[in-house]
Design brief:
Elements lengths: L1 H35 L4 H6 L14 H8 L5 H32 L3 H12 L9 H10 L8 H21 L4 H9 L4 H12 L1 H17 L2 H6 L8 H6 L10 H33 L4
Helix pairs in contact: 1-13, 3-13, 4-5, 4-7, 4-10, 5-7, 7-10, 7-13, 8-9, 10-13
Length: about 280
């Protein structure tokens, strides 16, 4: 008994060390961005991991320089990032939850094929379709912050439907039948009965989609008209001077501004991600 207990403690200690190392590896880039955002540009390359003290200290100059660089307002980029993120997440949550409810409740070959196609879309690399997608988005006028959420819906539907279908299958059908007996049609049943029970998974899917859309660079750079609309990630890419020189201090400062909201949002809502994944992805 004592031997097994000691072995269990050693296993936990080894796992703690391994996970601590992995945590440090993941956190190190964020720490590097933080310390270099307050450092003069000349020291970013030569003293990357040194603390910004003494002559290295730049204060808030990097932030001011990054936000005022060029002729495109930084706050426009913030506005478009917020618009795209909010609209895309709302569209994904509404569209995929309704589709998942239909797929889970209607036992037909069409629904099964549709479900497997949605799941299969998660393994298709974006690079395989990005050039065709760019051309199609231009033809359908999906190249604005108010229409690009339709494109995000297509790419975000796979994971969302996978999680929603698993959770809907765990909901007793008798609840919806009781609502139908009380006079609820399909629309009222979905919004008044199903949606409240989908809340844990909706929160999880919403958090994952927000983090993905907010940090995305490739899709907006291919689809949007960059002369008119730039997200924060694209704005950072344009921090170039003559002959392609890049102010790394200003770049690090804007990267920090871009990741801080996501980090705070994730740390605040991470418990909901765990609950939603456990509730939706392993049932059914």
């Amino acid at each position: 008994m004592n031997g097994s207990l000691a072995a269990e403690r050693r296993t936990k200690a080894v796992l703690s060390v391994i996970l601590s190392v992995i945590c440090i590896v993941y956190v190190l880039p964020v720490v590097a961005v933080l310390i270099n955002s307050f450092k003069l540009n000349t020291f970013v390359k030569t003293d990357t991991f040194a603390l910004p003290t003494g002559e290295m200290w730049a204060g808030l100059d990097n932030f001011i320089k990054g936000m005022t660089f060029g002729n495109y307002p930084f706050w426009n980029s913030v506005k478009y990032s917020v618009v795209i993120t909010v609209l895309s997440t709302a569209l994904i949550l509404l569209g995929t939850s309704m589709a998942a409810w239909y797929i889970a409740r209607v036992d037909s070959a069409f629904c099964r094929i549709l479900y497997f196609l949605c799941v299969f879309s998660m393994v298709v690399p974006f690079q395989m379709v990005m050039f065709t997608l760019s051309n199609t988005a231009d033809q359908l006028h999906l190249n604005t912050p108010w229409t690009i959420p339709v494109v995000y819906l297509g790419f975000g539907a796979g994971l969302a439907i996978f999680m929603f279908v698993g959770f809907v299958k765990s909901i007793p059908l008798e609840i919806e039948e009781a609502a139908a007996i009380d006079g609820c049609g399909p629309v009222r049943t979905f919004f008044l009965v199903v949606v409240p029970m989908l809340k844990p998974t909706m929160i999880s899917v919403g958090i994952l989609e927000i983090m993905w859309v907010w940090n995305d660079y490739l899709l907006p750079s291919l689809v949007l008209d960059l002369e008119k609309y730039r997200t924060i990630t694209i704005h950072i890419q344009y921090l170039k001077g003559s002959y392609g020189t890049v102010d790394l201090g200003a770049t690090m400062a804007l990267i920090l501004l871009a990741i801080i909201p996501v980090i705070i949002f994730y740390l605040t809502c991470q418990k909901h991600i765990i609950k939603g994944v456990a509730a939706g992805a392993v049932k059914g």
